[in-house]
Amino acid sequence: MRNLGMKVFAVIVALSMVSVLAYAAATAPDKVTLAAKNGAVTLDHKKHSTMTGVTCKTCHHTMTGATPDKKCSECHTAQADGKKLALKDAMHKTCKECHVKLKKGPSTKCAECHKK
Ligand code: HEC
Ligand code: HEC
Ligand code: HEC
Ligand code: HEC
C-alpha cells in the first residue's frame, strides 16, 4: 500500500516536472548563463528585455512570434562559407555595440562579462 502511494507520488512529481520544463521553454528567462572557455557570461535577461527602446528583436533579430524559435547558437555556427557570424562574434557585436552606444554596461573589460 505504502509502496503504491510512493509510486503514485513519483508519477505526479514527474508529470509536474514535465509541465514546468514545457513552461520554461516558452517563457523568457530572468537570467541566462552562457558557457564560455574564458568564463561564463550571465545576462540579466529580464532587465535587458524591459529596458526602454529595447524589443525582443533587438537581440533575437529573426524572431517573428512571441518567443524565439531558435537559439543564437543554432544559426551562428562558424561555417566555412563565412556567411554567418560565429557565435562569439554575433554575441560580442550584439552586446558590446549597445553598451558602447549607450555608454553603459561592459565592453572593453572582459572580466565584467566573463566570470571564472
Ligand atoms: C558584454 C559582455 C562581454 C564582454 C565585455 C566580452 N565578452 Fe566574450 N563573450 C560574451 C558572450 C555573451 C559570449 C558567447 C558565449 C556563448 O554563447 O556561449 C562570449 C564569447 C567569448 C569567447 C568564446 C568562448 C568559447 O568558449 O567559445 C571568447 C574567446 C571571448 N568571448 C573572449 C572575450 C574577450 C577576450 C573579451 C575582452 C576583450 C570579451 N570576450 C569581452 C560576452 C562578452
Ligand atoms: C539583450 C538581448 C536580449 C533581449 C532584449 C531578449 N533576449 Fe531572449 N535571450 C537572449 C540570449 C543571449 C539568450 C540565450 C541564447 C539563446 O537561447 O539564443 C536568450 C534566451 C531566450 C529564451 C530561452 C531560449 C531557450 O531555448 O532556452 C527565451 C524564451 C527568450 N530569450 C525570449 C525572449 C523574449 C520573449 C524577449 C523579449 C521580451 C527577449 N528574449 C529579449 C538575449 C536577449
Ligand atoms: C534563424 C537563424 C538566426 C538566429 C536564431 C539568429 N541569427 Fe543572427 N544572423 C543570422 C543571419 C542569417 C545573419 C546575417 C548573415 C551573417 O551572419 O552574416 C545574422 C546576423 C547577425 C548579426 C550581424 C548583424 C550585422 O549588422 O552585421 C548579429 C550581431 C547577430 N546575427 C546576432 C545574433 C544573436 C545575438 C542571436 C540570438 C539572440 C541571433 N543572431 C540569432 C541568423 C540568425
Ligand atoms: C540594447 C542595448 C543592450 C544590449 C543589446 C545588451 N545590453 Fe547589456 N546592458 C545594457 C545597459 C543599458 C546596461 C546598464 C544597466 C544598468 O546600469 O542598470 C547593461 C548592463 C550589462 C551588464 C552589467 C550588469 C547588469 O546587468 O547591469 C552585463 C553583464 C551585460 N549588460 C551583459 C550583456 C550581454 C551578455 C549582452 C548580449 C547578449 C548584452 N548585455 C546586450 C544595454 C544592452
Bound small molecules, by name, code or SMILES, are: heme C
What structural class do you assign from the helix and strand content? mainly alpha
Looking at the overall shape, the CATH architecture of the largest domain is Alpha-Beta Complex
- CATH-assigned fold name of the largest domain: Cytochrome C3
Physical arrangement of strands within the biggest beta sheet:
1-2-3
How many helix segments? 5
User: What profile does the largest beta sheet have?
Assistant: 3 strands, antiparallel
* Spatial extent as radius of gyration: 19 Å
Characterise this structure.
The protein is mainly α and 116 residues long. The chain is built from five helices and three strands, in the order αββααααβ. Mean pLDDT is 84; it is low at 18-25. The chain folds into two domains: 1-27; 31-115, Cytochrome C3. The protein is 47% helix and 8% strand. Strands 1-2-3 form a three-stranded antiparallel sheet, with no helix packed on it. The longest helix is centred in the first third of the chain and has 25 residues, at 2-26. It binds heme C (4 copies). One heme C (HEC) is lined by residues 25, 28-29, 32, 43, 45, 48-49, 54, 56, 58-60, 67-68, 71-72.
Q: What's the arrangement of secondary structure elements?
A:
Blueprint: H1 2-26, E1 32-34, E2 40-43, H2 45-49, H3 56-59, H4 72-75, H5 87-102, E3 114-115
The structure holds heme C (4 copies).
One heme C (HEC) binds at residues 34-38, 41, 87-88, 91-92, 95-96, 99, 106-107, 110, 112-114.
